[in-house]
Amino acid sequence: MKTVLCYGDSNTWGQTAADRPDDRYGPHERWPGVLRDLLGSEWLVIEEGLSGRTTVSDDPVEGHEKNGRTYFKPCLQSHKPLDLVIVMLGTNDLKVRFNKPASEIAMGVGALILDIKALAPGHGGGLPSILVISPPPIRRDLKGWESVFDGAYEKSHLLATEFERIADAHGAYFLDAGSVVTSSEADGFHLDIPAHKKLGQAVADWVTNSDWPART
């Protein structure tokens, strides 16, 4: 059995784009669940999503636990040995309170890649493969969230280029979610159910059709 860790924010956790019970999509609706269903019983797909999670920054409003790096190392150690680590973060770093350019958000992802390499949570103390997914750009109409994400629309369209550059520099793989899905019109920055399905399918296609083990 191969093990993949999906590490992300609300769009990995399954935060709904519209009102639903518990504000969360079901296990088979979230993209990691779609991935799990498509890969089948030979794979263990672990969901590690948290709403509001950043790449490497404490959140002065929502709390230090939103810092993606704080939990990342114990998370890797808890779930090892891992064959593949998927990181999809960056949307929350676009918030105006962090005042980050797209290049610095990408550097945060690079820091997480370095943490994976330092811990080597693969089989036999080796490195798992790493897939960086850039989140889809946010929309201009954020349904009341415009002040929180002031200036983020333009930056969100730069993330894919910056993330790909960082992934390539660190020997990681890259997938642009924006080439597959768009953020929901319901709130402008979360994924709806069809988008989760498409993203899960795209990741499953990548896992089954690419040569990803070659970089381990």
Automatic annotation (TrEMBL):
InterPro entries: Ester_Hydrolysis_Enzymes (IPR051532), SGNH_hydro (IPR013830), SGNH_hydro_sf (IPR036514). Keywords: Hydrolase. Transmembrane segments: none annotated. Coiled coil: none annotated. It holds the Pfam family Lipase_GDSL_2. Residues 6-187 form the SGNH hydrolase-type esterase domain. This is SGNH/GDSL hydrolase family protein. GO terms for molecular function: hydrolase activity, acting on ester bonds.
